[in-house]
Amino acid sequence: MTFSxxxxxxxxxxxxxxxxxKFLAVGAVVPWARAGVGAIATQSFANTSYGPxxxxxxxxxxxxxxxxxxxxxxxxxxxxxxxxxVAVTGEPATYTGSACFPWAGGRVGQHYACQxxxxxxxxxxxxxxxxxxxxxxxxxxxxxxxxxxxxEAGGDSRGRQSAALLVVRARGGYGGFNDRFIDLRxxxxxxxxxxxxxxxxxxxxxxxxxxxxxxxAINEAVARELQVMLTATGDYxxxxxxxYDAATRDALRQLSGRENLEEHWFEDARIDRVVLxxxxxxxPTQ
Length: 286
Description:
By secondary structure, the chain is of the alpha+beta class. It folds into two domains: 2-207, 4-Layer Sandwich (Glutamine Phosphoribosylpyrophosphate, subunit 1, domain 1); 212-282, no CATH class. The chain contains eight helices and twelve strands. It has helices at 50-59, 64-73, 123-134, 139-152, 192-207, 220-233, 246-258, 273-282; strands at residues 2-9, 14-21, 31-34, 38-43, 82-87, 93-96, 105-108, 112-117, 162-168, 180-186, 215-217, 270-272. The protein has a six-stranded antiparallel β-sheet with strand order 7-8-1-2-9-10, with helices on one face. β1 and β2 (14-21) form a beta hairpin. It starts with a strand and ends with a helix. The mean pLDDT is 96.
């Protein structure tokens, strides 16, 4: 009742997993990853020890296939298990036990492994693979695109309930203190993938650094628009005159702090387009 993809982006140094299931809080069970080591999805009567043990095997230099062989050899209920593994280098691997409920199976590509069980059909795994291969951009976006394609192709035959996205990279976590670059979960929702996409956009807004292409100079028109919006929020008390003065800048700084937008703050007369779009969507001015 679960389908997942484990994958890597060698250029970005990222490893990740995306998963959806007709199961409460699938993100607490299936995805495991460690920067510089690998990523693992353990599912179908999931043996959660596959996660930490598998990462330890990968860290010693075992390949993805060798890691799966070690994990399943020590598991008397291996026939009920399903697991996908990708290491930093080498061919990824997927395993589906003979007792997994149909449809169950997987597919491997150069930088990914897809797998699922209790699916409507094999089209789910095929669509995930084709979409991941055909999508460019950030690993997090490619993983979610593949997951959405799997759902569109049929998905879990029992329905949907939860989804999760985990991406790791060295010092990628908040403040650079760990490797959890993205760790997002939708535990119970009628449209878990759509909700996961929405939360990922918020994660990007709050925690991704500004894209240089999105940095705008605050000209008179933008300053006037900011003053109107900041008046509506109560942060600005001055005249709406298109002058980006100290009072307007202080009001924008106050709103940015309140909305957790500090990563996108500039002391000079510039603004990140994503902040401006966020304000336009959030603040009624009529």
